[in-house]
Amino acid sequence: MEYIKNRILSFKYAFWGIETLFRETPNAVIQLVAAIAAILSGLFFHITNAEWLILILSIGGVLTMETINSALENLSDYASKKEMHPTIRKVKDLSAAAVLIMAIAALAIGLVIFLPRIIHLFS
Questions:
Q1: pLDDT(99) > 90
Q2: 35-92: per-residue pLDDT in tens?
């Protein structure tokens, strides 16, 4: 019974993490709005199942990278007492770069999926 209770608690903590992400990270809110726009566009344009899978993975990738970036930033700030040590700065810059790389990839995916449909809509 203790095992089940601990599993339920682990989900509770994960949902608290999601709440913290969107409450404390403005970029995550922007990314969530972009994700909702992409999902609505997918519904509007009736994208294929394969395109849905790619879209879902790219949205998940961006939000996952943002979550890891936020966790590393919080841990770095705590460990350094908010003093900017060169190694802490490098860790924060690298984790921000990971988010940027994933966001650029997601944008490229969105363009490949939606741009031809948008062009066709207006032609």
A1: yes
A2: 999 999 999 999 999 999 999 999 999 999 999 999 999 999 999 998 889 999 999 9
Torsion of CA 76, 31, 23, 20, to 10 degrees: -50
CATH number of the domain where residue 51 is located: 1.10.287.3610
The DSSP result for 9-56, as a single string, is HHHHHHHHHHHHHHHH-HHHHHHHHHHHHHHHHHHHHT--HHHHHHHH
Domain encompassing residue 36: 2-121
Number of domains in the chain: 1
C-alpha dihedral, 72 to 103 to 21 to 91, nearest 10°: 10
Check if the beta carbon of residue 67 is closer than 8 Å to that of residue 21. yes
Cβ-based neighbours of 106, under 8 Å, separated by 6 or more: 58, 59, 61, 62
Structure-token pair, residue 50: 């394969």
Cα angle for residues 59, 60, 65 (degrees, 5° grid): 105
